[in-house]
Amino acid sequence: MVVIRLSRGGAKKRPFFNIVVSDSRERRDGRFIERVGFYNPVASGGEEPLRVSHERISYWTSKGAQLSDTVSRLVSQAKPAA
């Protein structure tokens, strides 16, 4: 099954997460199919805390990919004002 989830990066005490499309059998920080955004929980100043490619997420969900709970919360939080 293909899943859209967070992959951790960054340094110790400075987390940074990539939002990736991955096979569910791969490790959390392992190989992935495509990077569709990022989440920076400790962004400060002018840094961008969240970027999501909504068109790529809708493409992958149309192909049957499942969003993790956290990613679905972040995607709904980042919905563009239409």
% residues in beta strands: 35-45%
At the third CATH level, what is the topology name?
S16 Ribosomal Protein, Chain: A
- Characterize the largest beta sheet: strand count, sense, and whether it forms a barrel: 5 strands, mixed
Rg, please? 13 Å
What do these coordinates show?
This protein has helices at 54-62, 69-77; strands at residues 2-11, 14-23, 34-39, 50-52, 66-67. The chain is of the alpha+beta class. It has a single domain (2-77), classed as Ribosomal protein S16 (S16 Ribosomal Protein, Chain: A). The longest helix is centred in the C-terminal third of the chain and has 9 residues, at 54-62. It is globular and about 35 Å long. The mean pLDDT is 93.
Which characteristics define this entry?
2 helices, S16 Ribosomal Protein, Chain: A, alpha+beta, globular, 82 residues
